[in-house]
Amino acid sequence: MDYLGYMLIGIIVLSLCAAFFTVADAYTRINDHGDFTEDSQAYMKDFDVLEQERGIDPSSIPSG
Amino acid sequence: MNIKCKNCGGILEFDPELQKMVCSHCLSMFPVAETEKKHTTVFDSSHFSQENNVADELMDVDIYTCESCGAELIINDVELASYCVYCGQPSIVFSRTEKRLRPQYIIPFKISKNQAGTAIREKFVKSEYLDKDDKFFAPELLRGIYIPYGMFCFHANDEAYIRGVPYMVNKKQNHFPQYYYRKVFARIGHIPVDASFHFPNRSADKLEPFSDQDLTEFDSGFLSGYYADLRDEDFNLLRSRAVSRAKKILTSRLLSIPMVEHPVLIKDNPQIKCVKEIYALLPVWFMVIEHKGEKYTIMVNGQTGKVVGTLPVSYKKIAFFFIMSFIACFLMISTLSLIAAFTGYFQIAFLAYALGSPLLLYEGIKKIRKYRRDKQLSTSETIKNFVKERQEY
Lengths: 64, 393
Description:
Chain A is of the alpha+beta class. Helix content of chain A is 52%, strand content 17%. Chain A contains two helices and one strand. Chain B is flat, with a radius of gyration of 27 Å. Chain B has two domains: 12-103, no CATH class; 113-312 and 379-392, no CATH class. In chain B, helix 4 packs antiparallel against helix 5 (346-379). By secondary structure, chain B is of the alpha+beta class. In chain B, strands 5, 6, 8, 9, 10, 11, 12, 13, 14, 15 and 16 form an eleven-stranded mixed sheet that branches.
């Protein structure tokens, strides 16, 4: 089999996988119920950053 | 207990669109607080413990006899409001003589039955995989149920060390991770935790978020025209679930540092203190539909209108959609492959087959697994039994 034969097999396999993905994606999009972690941020009433430091030395991080 | 119209003696029901009690007979309208409720001694404060602790607030509940037709009914031991199965009148039910906790707050239904039906219909119409005939359902199957929840407020202090990559506008610049220290204070408010043993927690989570803006002091008038359950889960258990959720919410917010990508929490020390806990009833519309012998439960958040539930599928439509997608993909990929072959870049085409096929297959399988998990939730016996009896009346 020359490379055109391999190419045809590749095209068929990739097309099958792409069709499978399209069908699965279309269905899960309809049944998507939102991101629970993102939705939960609605319960965060106040968030105050009291201190923030950037570029700290990792060896200064207390262990334990 | 029935709540009766002052003008004609008909039964009053709570209308979510008007936020008033409406007489089904003469269409008179009354504010909820102004309606006369028989048996109000059931909720009289003298029946409650003087302590503020929610776990000590109790109420007496009576054996239920329908006031419209006199029928005596057997109801489940956590039901607070129901319909008489003989005459169909809505009733607030006090079953048995055991003591039950009194809800402190309620979020009254904001979404009417029609609005909930429309929300579900829109979801159904969007589904390419349903047969035309299956896209129609009877909105009268919808049942409004108040679900018992514990709601918790927390104050949280945390000191955290985070590793992240600073965001660079110039993408060619080297990205080295940096370490950050953050000390924060957060107020996390009214996290709802489902307090009904019979209602699956995962389903309850998916219905969220509920907004505390509509929390109102409990009034039995809001229950008229709906079903309602009392809580049957231990508050200590609910609190521990709420604490673990508060931790997740805090961590997720801690990691969102402006202009920092891929943050990883190295170490933190969260101190979370529960400052308030309440027992509330929250509104949910339910519907069980039957599709080819299998039953699916669809829910609508009675405050926001969010629809939760996995729809049934028509395998004929899936097969058709798959074949069409295959033909479209085949034509597109063949064209691209021929272009690659004629321009001497066929190695790129082979690389695309080798990498693209397993990746698409893997992502597709992940999505199908998610669908199966969601479907299990919608078709589970637990939730079906929770709604079924009420829908069959």
